[in-house]
Structure to design on (239 residues):
């Protein structure tokens, strides 16, 4: 919670913190009350937002080295690609874009380009929505959403509804929103304290990612969610 507040100079509300950490509002309020009592956080004049106190100082927002996220994800991501037969990426949210920190090729002989270091629009891909849904710093309320296909979500209100659904079910889906004929599935990676530090996801042709009714395959969703939890567990246990 302190790290989220450190990354939000304008402060955050109880609902923002609850959404980012997956906690009930009453739980968040209780923690904030304790942090306020010990002098770590302060409320603004309206009482609606909290921010770090000057006495506590700033923790900084880049507490997790992207190389650490990649190193913890490599084995799990490789296994997911092998079992699913699809491209797997691990990404993190940086300045409103999803930066790919690890990319596993589809395990076949087709020509493929390495995506490590490239950026993806968070509103138009499963990987992006999986991290955007838990971003309390305001990125989840962009002023303009670019269209990449006719299926790209370009209405801010619709995106917010989509992100709320991601938080509720624990994973994000994509259906021709960034690239025609491709679909994707991604899940958030939670590090220390339950904070979402990135996401892992797979992408492939619609007929392989979705069933005959164009729904994301439940077996692939299960694989992706299990991979995200395994990566997060490794991150948490190492600290």
């Amino acid at each position: 919670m302190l790290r989220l507040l450190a990354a939000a100079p304008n402060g955050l509300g109880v609902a923002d913190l609850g959404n980012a950490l997956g906690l009930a509002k009453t739980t968040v309020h209780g923690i904030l009350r304790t942090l306020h009592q010990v002098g770590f956080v302060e409320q603004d004049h309206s009482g609606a937002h909290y921010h770090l106190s000057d006495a506590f100082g700033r923790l900084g927002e880049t507490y997790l080295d992207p190389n650490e996220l990649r190193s913890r994800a490599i084995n799990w991501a490789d296994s997911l690609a092998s079992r699913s037969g699809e491209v797997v990426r691990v990404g993190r949210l940086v300045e409103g874009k999803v930066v790919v920190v690890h990319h596993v090729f589809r395990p076949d002989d087709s020509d493929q380009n390495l995506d490590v270091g490239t950026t993806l629009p968070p509103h138009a891909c499963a990987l992006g929505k999986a991290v955007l849904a838990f971003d309390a710093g305001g990125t989840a309320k962009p002023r303009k959403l670019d269209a990449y296909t006719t299926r790209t979500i370009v209405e801010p209100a619709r995106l917010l509804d989509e992100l709320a659904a991601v938080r509720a079910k624990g994973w994000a889906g994509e259906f021709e929103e960034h690239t025609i004929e491709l679909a994707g599935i991604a899940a958030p990676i939670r590090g220390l304290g339950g904070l979402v530090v990135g996401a892992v996801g797979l992408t492939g042709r619609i007929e392989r990612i979705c069933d005959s009714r164009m729904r994301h395959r439940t077996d692939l969703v299960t694989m992706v969610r299990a991979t995200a939890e395994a990566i997060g567990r490794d991150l948490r246990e190492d600290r």
Confidence is low (pLDDT under 50) at residues 57-62. DSSP finds eight helices and eight strands in the chain. Strands lie at 41-43, 50-52, 87-94, 97-104, 119-120, 172-175, 182-190, 196-205. The chain has two domains: 1-59, 66-235.
